Amino acid sequence: MTAPANRLIPDRLQSPLTRALRSWEAVLVIVAIAVFVTNAFASPYFLNAWNLSDATFNFTEKAMIAFAMAMLIIAGEIDLSVASIIALVSTAMGLAIQAGAGVPLLVLIGLTSGLLCGAVNGFLVAGMGLPSIVVTIGTMSLFRGISFIVLGDQAFTGYPDGFDYFGQGYVWWVFSFELALFAVMAVVFWALLHRTNFGRAVYAIGNNATAAQFSGIRVARVRFILFLLTGLTSGIAAICLTSRLGSTRPSIATGFELEVVTMVVLGGVSILGGSGSILGVVLAAFIMGMVTFGFGLLNVPGIVMSIFLGLLLIGVIAVPRLLRGK
Amino acid sequence: MNPVLSLRGISKSFPGVKALQGVQLDLFAGQVTALIGENGAGKSTIVKVLTGIYQPDAGTITIDSTPIRFATAQDAARAGVTAIHQETVLFDELSVAENIWLGHAPRTRFGLIDRRAMRDGAKRLLTSIGATLDPDLRLGDLGIASKHLVAIARALSTDARVVILDEPTAALSHKEIHELYDLVETLKAQGKAILFISHKFDEVFRIADRYTVFRDGQFVGEGAMADATEGQLVQMMVGRSVDQIFPPRSHNIGDPVLTVAGYSHPTEFADINFTLHKGEILGFYGLVGAGRSEVMQALFGITKPSKGAVRIDGQVRVIRSTHEAIAAGIVYVPEDRGRQGAIRGLPIFQNVTLPSLTRTSRSGFLRLAEEFRLSRDYTQRLDLRASALDQELGLLSGGNQQKVVIAKWLATKPRVIILDEPTKGIDIGSKAAVHDFMAELAAEGLAVIMVSSEIPEVLGMSDRVIVMREGRIIDEVTGSRMTPETLVRAAAGIAEAA
Questions:
Q1: Model confidence over B237-264: pLDDT tens digits?
Q2: For residue B387, which residues of chain A lie inside 8 Å, CB to CB?
Q3: Residues of A in contact with B339 (CB under 8 A)
Q4: Which of A276, B153, B226, B449 could form a Cys-Cys staple with B125, CB 3.0–4.6 A?
C-alpha cells in the first residue's frame, strides 16, 4: 500500500444516476411499463383518459396510508389496524352528521379521530414497549368492534352536500381530488422521509434501534409520531372513502390493511425494516391499480386478481434474490 | 502420577493476534488445577481448544498418554471433556431433565425419547452433585444457583472425566459460591480432573491443588498451590509489560470538568465519587463485571442512578436520556460496537452525523453537503480507510468501523468523552491510531475517560487510574503507584505488599 496517510475519501462511490439505474425503483418502472403496455393491447377500453382516471380510485386511498405505513415499516414496526381506523373514523363522522355537523366539522372530526386511534397504538407500542404486531392486531378488532356496536346492521347515509367532493370531485379535467391529494401527500412524505432529520432517525431506528438510542435519537418519540401518522393518513383515507361511497357501514374498507402492506413491500420496503423509499411505494401503487383495472376490463373475477397480486408480490421479491444467487 | 489430559506446545493464531504460543497444561485425576492469567492471556482460547471449538495450529493433546484430535465439539465430548461456561446456554421453557439430556437423550427400542430413563438419569446426576431438584420442574422457575447445578449435571451427563469450570462464580452470591466449593470437592472425590478458571485469588487458594499461569498467550509456570504465594502468582501474571508503544502525552491538566458525587444504582454500583479534569485521561480498571460500564452508561443517560449528583463545569446536570447527555456535552463510545455503536446498514457519513443532525441541518431539513463536510473532517483525522463516504458502514473492517464510531462522537464537540474498551477486538494498526487520537484529544483539552481491561493500555494512556471492584471504587492510583501489580491486587481484592 503506497496510499498517502491522509488521502481524500470521495463522497460517493457511484454517481446518483448509476445508483438510480441499479435500484429497485428502476425494476418497478419496467414492471409498470410492462403492465401498462399489456393492458393497452388486451383491452380497447384501457387507453381512455376517463377510464384511466376512474382506475386511480383503486389505489389512491390505500396509497395515502401506504406512505405512512412505509415509514413505520422502515422503522421496524407495523400497523395492522389501519382499515379498522377507517371504520371507526367513518362511524364517528356518521354520528356527527346525525348531530347536524357541517362539512368543515366533519373533516375536523375525521382527522382528529384518526389521530386519536394512532395515539392509542403509539402509546401502547412506544410508551409501554409492547410489540406493534400484537398491539395493532388487538386494536384492529377493537376499533372495528366499536364501529359494529354503534351501527349494528345499520348504515349512516345522508352526508351533506359538498362532502361528496373529497371522493367524487375533480380538480381539473380528469384529475380527481383524490389523485391530487395522493400526489401532494407523495411529495410531503418523500420530503419527510428522505429530506429531514426525522426521516434519517426513522432509518437509523429501523437498522439498529439500540445504536440509534445511543446516538441520542429519541426512539420512543419517533415511534409514537409514526403511529400518529398512520392514524392521521387513515383518517384522511376514511374521509375520501366515506365521501366516495356516500355511506358508512361497519364493514367499510375490510382487508385494506393487507393491501396497504402489500403495496409497501412491493415498493421495495424491507419488511424487516431499515430500507425502502417513497418513490417505490408510488410506483407499487400505480402497478397494483393498473393490474386491478386491467383485469376488471377483461372481466376477470376478483379472486383471480388476488391470486395474481399474490404471485406478483412473491415474484418481485423472489426474482432479484434468485438472480443474486442466494 | 500421570496426567489424565495433557497439552504440549499448543499454538493458535488469529489474523493479527497470536492467542496461544506453544503453551502446556496438565490435568490430573481428582485434582483441581487453576488456570491463572490476565484478560487476553489466552484462557478462553485454551478452553475452546480443549472443547473442540478451535483446532490448534500446532501442538498435541493426549488423553491417558494417547494422542487425540478434537475435530469437533462432539469429539471432545466423546473423549470425556466437558466445560461449564460463565453463561451456559440453557432453555427456560424445558424441564430440568430435558435440559440435562438435550441432544443426547436416552432412546427406547423404537427410537423415541425414553422419558423414564431421562428422569431417572437426571435424578441420579443431580443426586451425585448433592442437588435435590425435581427433574420435572420447568427450568425458568428455578433460581440462578439451581440453574447452575443443572448446567453442571448436564456437563456430567456425558460421563466426563475432565471438567472445565470457566469463571463459575461470576454470577453467584456468597452462599451459592460456598455450595459450589462443596460441589467441586464432590467432583474431586469422584476422580474428575478439574480445570478451574478464575480471576479471584481467594477462590483459587481455597479450592485449587495446582496452578498454571499464562501471560500474553504464553506458558509462564506451574506448580503446587501449597508452595505458592499471592505475590509470586501476581508477579508471574504480570511479568514485565509487553513491548507496546504508546504516544507521548502532554499531561497538561486543567480545571475540573466533570464531578460525580455519591453516585449509586440499586444493584450495579454504589457511592461513586470522582473528578475529571480538562486535558486528562482518566483510566477505569477492574475485572469484568466490576460495574465500570454500568457507571458510564448511567452518566450517559442509558440507565437511571438511584442517587448522586453530576456536575459539569460546576453546574448540576440531570441526565435522563442520551439526548440530554449529548446536550450536556457527555458522549460514550460503547464497548459493544456491533449492537450499540455502529449502524452497519447505513452509510459512513450518516453514521457520523447521526448525533449531530441538529447542527448539519436547517429547520429540520437535511443538508447533505454539510454532512459530507463534517464526516470527512472527522474520519480523515482518524485516518479512516474507506472507498467512499456513502459506503455502507458494515463493509468496513472492525478497526475502521470503530474509527467511524469515535468520529461520530467527536463530531458532537463534546466536553467529556467516555471510551469503553476502545481497542477491544481491533487490529494493532487501528489500535495505535485510536491511541494516538486519544492523546491528541486530551492535548486539545477534552476530558477523556477510558474504561479498559488491558493493563498495558490503562497504564500507557492514563494520567490516573481508578480501580473498581464489585460496584465500588477501591483505589485511585497515581504517580509511582501506577504499576501492573497495584492494579491487579486492587482489582482482585488482595492487600498491597508491604
A1: 877 544 467 887 777 888 999 999 999 9
A2: 9-10, 13
A3: 208, 210-211
A4: B153
Contact A11 B391 (CB under 8 A): no
Contact at CB, B344 and A197, closer than 8 angstroms: no
User: Which has more pLDDT, A196 or B77?
Assistant: A196
Q: What is the pLDDT of residues A91-106, one digit of tens each?
A: 999 999 999 889 999 9
Q: Which of residues 287-326 of B touch A (CB under 8 A)?
A: 300, 302, 321-323, 325-326
User: Which of B322, B350, B384 is the mutation pick for testing A, counting most A CBs within 10 A?
Assistant: B322
In chain A, which residues have their Cβ closer than 8 Å to the Cβ of B407? none
DSSP structure class, residue B362 = B
Please list the residues that pair with B392 across neighbouring strands.
B347
Query: What residue ranges do the domains of chain B occupy?
Result: 5-238, 256-492
Contact at 8 Å (CB) between B451 and B335?
yes
In the beta sheet, which residues pair with residue B362? B365
ipTM of the complex: 0.87
What is the fold of B5-238? Rossmann fold (3.40.50)
What is the reported pTM? 0.77
Looking at the predicted structure, is the pLDDT value of residue A324 above 70?
Answer: no
Written out in words, the top-level CATH class of the domain with range A55-312 is mainly alpha
CB contact under 8 A, B321 and A211: no
Q: pLDDT, tens digit, for every residue of B326-366?
A: 999 999 999 888 788 899 999 999 999 999 999 999 999 99
Residues 446-485 of B with CB under 8 A from A: none
Q: Where are the alpha helices (DSSP H) in B382-483?
A: 398-410, 428-443, 455-461
Question: Searching chain A, which residue's CA lies closest to the CA of residue B349?
Answer: A11
- Cβ distance of A197 and B358 shorter than 8 Å: yes
User: Got the DSSP string for A44-104?
Assistant: TTSS-HHHHHHHHTTTHHHHHHHHHHHHHHHTT---TTHHHHHHHHHHHHHHHHHTT--HH
Is it true that B5-238 and B256-492 share their CATH fold? yes
**B248 neighbors B270 (Cβ within 8 angstroms):** no
pLDDT band at A5 (very low <50, low <70, confident <90, very high): very low
Domain borders along chain A are 55-312
